[in-house]
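In response to reviewer comment 3 from the previous cycle, which asked for concrete evidence that the modeling workflow produces usable outputs, we include below a single protein chain processed end to end. The sequence was submitted unchanged, and the resulting structure tokens are shown without manual editing.
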Amino acid sequence: MGLISRKTLPGVLLLGAAVCPLAAAPKLRLNETAVGPVSVAQGANGPARTLEAYNAGDGTLSLTVASSVPWLAATVGAQRACAARAGLCLPIQVALNTATLARGSYTGTLTVADPNALDAPQTVTVTVLAGGGVPDRLDLFVAPNGSVAEAGFTANNSLQARASTESGGNWLSVALEGTGSFRFVLSYKVTARHLPGMAEGTYRGSVTVSGAGVPADNKSFPVALQVTSRPIAQASPSKLALRYAQNISRQRINLVVSNLGLGSLSISGATAATSSGGNWLAAEPVAGYPVVQAVVDTAGLAPGWYQGTVSLATNASNATLSVPVQLEVVAQSAPRALAQGVVNNATFQAGEAVAQGAIAAVFGEQFTLKDPAQAAALPLPQELGGVRVLVNDRPAPVYYASYGQINFQVPYDAAPGDAVVRVERDGQRGNPISLAITPSAPRLLRLGIGDYGIVVNQDGTFPIPVTPGLASRPARIGDALVIYAIGLGPTTPAVAGGAAAPSDPLARVEPPFSVIFGGAFSWSGIPVAPLFAGLTPGFVGLYQINVIVPEEAPISDRVRLSLARDGLASNAVEIAIQ
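The workflow returned the following structure tokens.
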């Protein structure tokens, strides 16, 4: 069976990562990296919090903590027994000096540093809601087809919340949804649903809150529900919290506008406004797509916090969407990679081991101060736009470099075990972060539609339910499929890092992984030996597994598919089989 043409592969596959062995050094770990939101009474200081730092490596931690805002302070205490885990911890006592804050939402950062530790510095975000977290009102929209609209608020203690309506039946409810940071954050979800017989129009109700620790949160607030057959616009993300260095290239963040209602949604315009710092924010629609880009320019801005709003004009019932933008500007410095910031480029799961030869990504900030750069030819370069990724002090092949993300290939000859990764910009090396490397860590790629994988039928279509605008059809018994993956490890013959895989001879994974059809787990489905498992010719770090759909395969729109070998299993994706 032939191998799939590269023309059928989405360009999104060209991504990557890198790694290196650990020296005898401390390794910083924090039990929390986000605090809040903490509701505080206006005119009062918030309750104290305690973080715990511990050493997951060798040696001894020597920590300092710096705050980005005057209302937030922290001190490091003497080592003691951990409260949240076994072992010894350094307590970091956090003070919320919020008495002078006006009503509103505020975010600050604490930077926990140790110049001799791996995975340092680390940033803790702290959010407070001065005047409380219960809203003053909610305006919700649903289509007349049984749709549901949701909104939420937070509290720091268990409270009583009751919903009532003036008309239209019991269309409004409120319930405790779950807990959040520090186990002090309780999330409450307000749900409005279209009930049978509800005509188009506006329905009114209210939510009454009592027992809140912040007196201002004990109140009733109105809820208006509009049932409409027009489009209902939703922006994703619904708010932006950004952190950039001074005087870097303009940064662009996509705001995707989707339609939760009926009819056809269109964007008629986009504007931006700032409440401080001048004209650092702009909005630019992307022609032909339901996307608006928020454009941030930090030129001339002093370090500090800035607020702005992007407004999106649409033909929807909720005609104008407002996306709040919070920007933290920091001074230029060396590149900074996030702790556990190297992840495989399929699941992006922090803390997982990454395979030799895997496509990976490292996340952080100030990797480049210029526009993003992408490799233009193979073999991949070891430096791109002045940026290098060093795995155990050896450069790795790089696909793409931007301010906050680099895609690269983990070297095939990187030693299995603990490794150290650094990013270098124009000769200036950043902080070291730790990574575990393993000979093989198979990860199947996802298509971006539900849990369906990047799998291709022999006619070039995707084996998913027929989807408008996408070449698709369910697979059939006896069909040949090509499954795309990363992280299957070294091949025979070996392929150099950054080089395109050969077509003659093919670079095979030996022994090959079995393809598992169906089953709740990889070991409970139907194992099938593949026709081929190895690197895709002409690509770097991209594997493919060619397999025939067995007669015993389940018939369903959602058949589980995974790889397994010698007790090692991949993640699972889905395909449709009819």
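Confidence is low (pLDDT under 50) at residues 1-22. We consider this sufficient to address the reviewer's concern, and the full set will be provided in the supplementary archive.
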